[in-house]
Amino acid sequence: MAEEQNPDAEGMDSDLADEWAAAMSEASEGGGDNLDDEWAAAMSEQVDDVKPVQLQELGGGGSAGLGSDLDLIMDIPVTLSMELGNTEIAIRNLMQLTQGSVVELDRFAGEPLDVLVNGTLIAHGEVVVVNDKYGIRLTDVVSPSERIKRLK
């Protein structure tokens, strides 16, 4: 039975290949070379301004190089969040929540909060109030090796 389907599949594949070939030839006839010329011109304009960076230039060879490497990423924004707890809830129950509703979380009172950076656990802490604003005091920082293990 599989042998009977193969000739039809091969015919459909060749028809599809013919359609793609026709479409590609129409695209190349319809000004595709002009588009390539525009890209080539734009790239040649940039060649004079762009200097390739060599890895040795970034490394620096010593601890001073490490500081310059870190300077490259120091201004990249990340999202720092604290997770008090979580729970799973059915959409039916979610739709019934109103002002004053209580949602039970999976953490006990007094248990440390998770501190996450871009969704990755980096520390645990406790809530504090400083100048009428909430803050978090870090009580345990996850080691870099442990963070790498959690990524896998």
DSSP E strands, number: 4
**Strand line-up across the major sheet:** 1-2-3-4
Q: Supply the CATH architecture of the largest domain.
A: Roll
Helix percentage range: 40-55%
What does this structure look like?
There is one protein chain. The protein is an alpha+beta fold and 152 residues long. The chain is built from five helices and four strands, in the order αααβαβββα. It has helices spanning 2-47, 55-59, 63-73, 91-95, 144-151, and strands at residues 80-83, 113-117, 120-130, 133-141. A four-stranded antiparallel beta sheet has the order 1-2-3-4. The longest helix is centred in the N-terminal third of the chain and has 46 residues, at 2-47. The protein is extended and about 70 Å long. The model is unreliable at 1-7 and 53-62 (pLDDT under 50). GO terms for molecular function: cytoskeletal motor activity. It is a peripheral membrane protein.
Characteristics:
single chain, 152 residues, alpha+beta, Surface presentation of antigens (SPOA), 2 domains, four-stranded antiparallel beta sheet, disordered N terminus, chemotaxis
Helix-strand layout with pairing:
Layout: H1 2-47, H2 55-59, H3 63-73, E1 80-83, H4 91-95, E2 113-117, E3 120-130, E4 133-141, H5 144-151
Q: How is this structure best summarized?
A:
The protein has a four-stranded antiparallel sheet.
